[in-house]
Amino acid sequence: MKLSLVLFFIFSLTGCGSLANGLAELTGLSFLHDRRSSAVIALDENIEDSAIIELHALDDVKEHAHFNVTSYNGKVLVTGEAESEAIRDKIIANIRIISGVKLVHNEMVIAPISTMQSRSEDALITIKVKDALTKIKGKPGFDATRVKVITERKVVYLMGIVHEEEGLAAAKVVQSVPGISKIVTVFEYIDYAKKNN
């Protein structure tokens, strides 16, 4: 019941745009707009699943770190907190050797593990950012579901395969979202010649 109330509250704050965007992701409809092939999408999911399974099997990592692993086209963003450099380095080293990983963006910080309240605030920021992305106009072919949004400690990370002007527009519109401390773009840019794809 509590979860239902929280979800209702979050959706009521964000309006129809982000609700539609969120439902597209939940139901897999964003797959239809993805610039990755189905094989690459499956590989990214496998990378994320493998990382979670392998790292949660390590007691020291499980006890002394909180992390999120997001793979997009084989490029992996790692966010979260580790209580020591040794734990952080262990996490990154384990992810680097997973099959299919091309590059690791290490954005983990050495800090106490985040609280549930902090993570809830991050989740709300993510929803607001996704809503803001749906309001981008004047960019033919732009689709908000092509931008992956990750928020950690009020830092917003934007991932995806985009044209440069799409990436600039996304970063600009996200600046208007309250509560963000920093925006980090981890985009993979595609050629202007492929603008309509």
- Our count of helices gives 6
Global geometry: globular
CATH architecture annotation name of the largest domain: 2-Layer Sandwich
Strand order of the largest sheet: 1-2-3
Q: Can you tell me the CATH class of the largest domain? A: Alpha Beta
Number of strands: 6
Low-confidence stretches: 1-24
Strand content: 15-25%
Structure write-up:
With 197 residues, this protein is an alpha/beta fold. It folds into 2 domains: 2-33 and 115-194, GMP Synthetase, Chain A, domain 3 (2-Layer Sandwich), CATH 3.30.300; 38-110, Histidine-containing Protein, Chain: A. The protein has 6 helices and 6 strands, in the order αααββαβαββαβ. Strands 1-2-3 form a 3-stranded mixed β-sheet. Helix 1 (2-27) crosses helix 5 (116-133). The longest helix is centred in the N-terminal third of the chain and has 26 residues, at 2-27. The chain is globular, with a radius of gyration of 17 Å. The termini are far apart. 29% of the residues are buried. The model is unreliable at 1-24 (pLDDT under 50).
Notable features of this structure?
197 residues; alpha/beta; GMP Synthetase, Chain A, domain 3; Histidine-containing Protein, Chain: A; 2 domains; 3-stranded mixed beta sheet; disordered N terminus
Strand-helix topology:
Elements: H1 2-27, H2 38-56, H3 59-64, E1 65-72, E2 75-82, H4 85-96, E3 103-110, H5 116-133, E4 148-152, E5 155-162, H6 164-174, E6 182-189
Helix pairs in contact: 1-5
